[in-house]
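User: Fold this; tokens only.

Assistant: Input:
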Amino acid sequence: MRKELSVFRLLPFVAAVALACGCSDTSSADGAGEQDDAMRMRFGTARVDTRAVVGTAELQAAGSAFSVWGTYRKATSAPVTVFDGTRVTSDGAKWSYDVPQYWFPTFTYDFRALYPADLPAGVSVRFASDEARLSVENFDVSSGIDLLAASPAAVTCVPGKTMGSVNLDFRHLLSRVTFVGRSDEQHLGTGRRVVIDRAVLYGIRTTGSWSGASFTGTAPGAWTPTGPVLGADADLYSAASVELAVDGTKLFPDDRTLFIPQDLSEAVLEITFHYNYTDADSPLQFTSRVALSTVSERWEAGKSYRYPFSIESHIFFETPTVEPWQYAPVNGPDFNVDL
């Protein structure tokens, strides 16, 4: 039978493993009593207050789930696995997992977590129990899935002491990138607009493998981009028939804002466009290209990049904003773009 778990209110992007009422000196199996029930490991998620692909509604919706790995050890002994990709699922109000686990006094525990629990076919997740290290192989951002992980510090169960909660602080593993173009009436004239016939981003990789070995408070692991480089004829990051508003228009749709963190030495944004006015029977069409490395050297994990640009006869980028994703204020005084 599935056991119900409490939901705890914590900081944004935090899942809690609640260590209730201190450590038990025995492990419990079927028929656990009230004392053992109080020692049960419990999971919950907090409210997500940030602008992100994964927000409060998605994270806490019925059926939403993350996976947990965990080990315990004593002194220099080999770690023992207690959670091995255990699925923790929400019913919309409470979180639950199938087989309850309990705490041992004086043992040290390491936890790792990955959201979402369901990943696309072909993606593999590995857990090295001796180092409590997660890794993800062959992840493709074309799936549109926002990948998050948590890697808290180890916690030791102290006999007779009421334990606080061990916070699983979920961090975004991907880069979030938006391109926002506008028609500048100061240069074009009142009522005049730039119309994009085709825009394409190429020279980047869309698959990669992630290692949590270097997971820290400022760097959520490391990526190795894999797979082929997108060519100029790629359609994954492309747009057509887009008229740029004065206050800004997003170039690519919402499901194309996730990217593998990577070097941008080969990345190119190419835009073919015309103006919504002409003195000829047919509008003149222009093509302009920008090497993204002239704007940003690379995209890093857990960061949100916003590139404002305008077009005259060429593409002109303003200074991009780069923010930690969980605190990224994507709206600004120049553009009020609801992302």
